Amino acid sequence: MLFTAAFGCLLLVESPAESDGTQAGAGPEPETATRLQPRIWKVLLLVFVSGLLLMNYNTLLPMFAAEQGDSGSGYSRLLASMGAGSLAAAVMITFRSSWFRHNFLIPLFPALIAVAYAVLPSLPRGLPTLLLLAIYGFFLTGFITMSNAAVLREGSKRDRAKLASVFNMLLNGFVPLGNMLTGIFLHYLGVSGSFYLISGSTLLFLVVWLAYSRLKGGGDVHVRYRQSPEARPHHTRER
């Protein structure tokens, strides 16, 4: 139901051609933004999978802490480490935003999170685990920020509010479903098996995503941080 609602919202987003004031009859019928800008689709697909598989820490970490023999304070330390990593990413984005404008980081950060999921069960408890969870928080915050900025910059100015709504729905709306799936994984596979399954599924998706993107669009796999149509010089829009 949530995906259907998000899909419907995305189809209602007007194209940049419409927002630039293209007159009826002056050319072909304007296309929707989803058809005109496949890069938006690609990033939103990454966001959907990340919300479904990589934001389930509130289900995994309590079981992980219990398996390690930690009390409630141990679980609190795990969450605090994630928060520290997220804070570090937020500070870097604020003061060194240019470091987060590399296109390849958008698929790379989910891949690194998946690798962290695969490594986490084998780490000894204590400082190594806390450091890895801080890295997880850093990558997760970085990915959310970069993907959100990429989607908004690819869309036209008047459509950004709609795109932001779709982005948040795909990212946060599927977290409950992801938590439910994680609970099923934990029941049948245990903590380590759940980490491995989520990690493998995410990495497999990213391989397919990258291969499909290159097959369909070559260099179009990269999300460009370009100026919006409204910010371009007047003579470049009127051709």
Automatic annotation (TrEMBL):
InterPro entries: MFS, MFS_trans_sf
Listed GO CC annotations: plasma membrane
MF terms in GO: transmembrane transporter activity
Tagged with keyword Membrane: yes
SUPFAM superfamilies (alphabetical): MFS general substrate transporter
Membrane topology, from the record: Multi-pass membrane protein
A Pfam family of this chain: MFS_1
Subcellular location: Cell membrane
Superkingdom per UniProt: Bacteria
UniProt keyword annotations, A-Z: Cell membrane, Membrane, Transmembrane, Transmembrane helix
Transmembrane parts of this sequence: 43-66, 78-98, 104-123, 130-151, 163-186, 193-212
Main subcellular localisation: membrane
Protein name according to UniProt: Putative MFS family arabinose efflux permease
PANTHER family: INTEGRAL MEMBRANE EFFLUX PROTEIN-RELATED (PTHR23513), MAJOR FACILITATOR SUPERFAMILY ASSOCIATED DOMAIN-CONTAINING PROTEIN (PTHR23513:SF6)
